[in-house]
From TrEMBL:
PANTHER family cross-referenced by the UniProt entry: 3-OXO-5-ALPHA-STEROID 4-DEHYDROGENASE, STEROID 5-ALPHA-REDUCTASE DET2
Keyword Transmembrane applies: yes
Topology versus the membrane: Multi-pass membrane protein
Organism annotation: Dichomitus squalens
The protein's name: 3-oxo-5-alpha-steroid 4-dehydrogenase C-terminal domain-containing protein
Lineage per the UniProt record: Eukaryota, Fungi, Dikarya, Basidiomycota, Agaricomycotina
Amino acid sequence: MAAVSAVFFNTINGSLMGHEHYAIPHGLLYRFILYPRYFCEWVEWLAFALAASPVPSFALVGAFIATVSLPWLFFNEVWLVLPWAYKGHKWYHSEFPDYLKERRVIIPFLF
């Protein structure tokens, strides 16, 4: 979750006092999606995969395994992050009644 937290040091007794504050992020890509960091990371890895290795064959599972190279394995990250991001999106809807209903999770205008 995108949390803004501050930790204060109490100089009288030397203890830490923590305070967390949750807020809705705004600006730039946050107007369209909740997790722009993941979206930009995926675009970066896709560009790297296109530039560094040939496109794998999607004809058969065996052909895919034989032709896939390491940069194309970034799709694994996509499938691991999607459920967590969706859960976070639902959390924002439950915690903030004024949360933007048209804001997507990760992919602008789609998901």
